[in-house]
């Protein structure tokens, strides 16, 4: 087994992004959390208020021998709406922004390339996905982890939003979906 890498991605509600990323081949784990803000150890309530500057995000641990960082970014860009500033569907605020949080300059170059690929494949649309970081990661509270696998299956919001994202993943990235 090769070494793992980590990608930190914000695509709106972290429950939704987590559900998608968990179904991607090569992904070992997905953790929901907060990044990109000013307050140390923010709570969900504080982040939802929009006052901390954090984004709801996921930290994806993956095997680059199975899926490259570039391919993972393409899946991310293709399974949320990267064209709406500080918004995903009915979720509005900076905490729901589309962002790729980088650890170094090589990741910046790959993030820029992923956004350029998305823009080239979608004439007339422009991604507003931000490239941010490096930034401090804070794990979300335990009840947010693996949310879709548990409580999310009974949550009307999740039932309305997550299945279409999973369908998009399976349709657009057939060779990148776990069986």
Low-pLDDT windows of residues: none
Q: What is the overall silhouette?
A: globular
Query: Would you count the extended β strands for me?
Result: 8
CATH-derived architecture: 2-Layer Sandwich
Q: Considering DSSP H and I runs of 4 or more, what fraction of the residues is helical?
A: 25-40%
CATH topology: Peptide Methionine Sulfoxide Reductase, Chain A
- Provide mean pLDDT, rounded: 96
Indicate the CATH class. Answer: Alpha Beta
Number of helices: 5
Radius of gyration, in angstroms, nearest whole number: 15 Å
Q: Can you say what the CATH homologous superfamily is?
A: Peptide methionine sulphoxide reductase MsrA
Detailed description of the structure:
The protein is of the alpha+beta class. It has one domain (5-176): Peptide methionine sulphoxide reductase MsrA (Peptide Methionine Sulfoxide Reductase, Chain A), CATH 3.30.1060.10. It is built from five helices and eight strands; from the N terminus they run βαβαβαβββαββα. The strands form two sheets. A six-stranded mixed β-sheet has the order 7-6-1-3-2-8, covered by helices on one side. It has a two-stranded antiparallel sheet with strand order 4-5. Strand 6, helix 4 (105-121) and strand 7 form a beta-alpha-beta unit. The radius of gyration is 15 Å and the shape is globular. The model has no long low-confidence stretch (mean pLDDT 96).
